[in-house]
Amino acid sequence: MPIWSASSSREVRYALCDDEDTLIWFGNQRAVEYHPTLTTVSRPGRPSYVVLDIDPPSGAEFGAAVAAALLVRQALSDAGLGGAVKTSGAKGVHIYVPVSDGVSAMMRRRPPVR
């Protein structure tokens, strides 16, 4: 997927993950960071939160992660959702988003159809 980069004044091509094979490729490139779902022992297939991990780009300050988190907060709000933010190590933030009790873990792995 081509995207114009103002900082380098050129078009940059990014891989677009839109199927399972591409997701596996991303995983093999170590481009996907996994976080365990937050579940209880009595309901292992029903995570109660999704964790979004936001780190600033290489060489950027912590403020870049904060700016991205504010955009995520607005997107969540626009969708009628909320979340709690905490720092994640030295450079980023985690956003904990509560999910509906009626949604299974399998359904949470797939993006909504629009």
Describe the model.
By secondary structure, the protein is of the alpha+beta class. It is built from three helices and five strands, in the order E-E-H-E-H-E-E-H. The strands form two sheets. The chain has a three-stranded antiparallel beta sheet. The chain has a two-stranded antiparallel ribbon with strand order 1-2. It is globular. The model is unreliable at 105-114 (pLDDT under 50).
In short:
With 114 residues, this protein is α+β, with helices and mostly antiparallel strands.
Helical proportion, percent range:
25-40%
Rg, Cα atoms, Å: 16 Å
Distance between the termini: 20 Å
Q: Approximately what portion of the residues adopt beta-strand conformation?
A: 15-25%
Q: Count the helices. How many?
A: 3
Order of helices and strands: EEHEHEEH
Q: Number of DSSP strands?
A: 5
**Largest sheet at a glance?**
3 strands, antiparallel
